[in-house]
Amino acid sequence: MALSDISSVARSVLIVEDEAMIAMMLEEYVSALGHQVRGVASSLAEAAALIDAIGGEGAVDLAILDCHLGREEVWPVADRLLAAGITVILSSGGSISTLPERFSACPMLQKPYTMAALTEILTHAPASV
């Protein structure tokens, strides 16, 4: 599928964000752009349970993961999703000096989120493997 075709395809999205207001805003943005939010989690434990509940490979097209969930880092969830062939978009409101090398190819969405930035990243994010 060509990148130009992706923007017209509705995708199912998992959101992992620990700040409730930001998660709600992101959920609204994703829905407004015509995509389906399959679930929202605010911690590693919630994300793992949600992934288990909705199924593994093929259950979602992509995930938007806040790199820092309180004192936790999202890396175990990112590893699990990538291993299942799910596209991972990382997000952060600050510097990610601790970004593990294995995630260097993941698209990065900077906070604060804007519709323009979200549209751009969802348009160009690769399809799940």
From TrEMBL:
Describe the location of the Response regulatory domain by residue ranges.
12-126
InterPro entries registered for this protein in UniProt: CheY-like_superfamily, Sig_transdc_resp-reg_receiver
- UniProt record, GO biological process: phosphorelay signal transduction system
Q: What's in the keyword line of the UniProt record?
A: Phosphoprotein
Leader sequence segment: none
User: Sites of the modification 4-aspartylphosphate?
Assistant: D66
Has the keyword Phosphoprotein been applied to this entry?
yes
Its name, as the record gives it, is Response regulator
Source species taxonomy? Bacteria, Pseudomonadati, Pseudomonadota, Alphaproteobacteria, Sphingomonadales
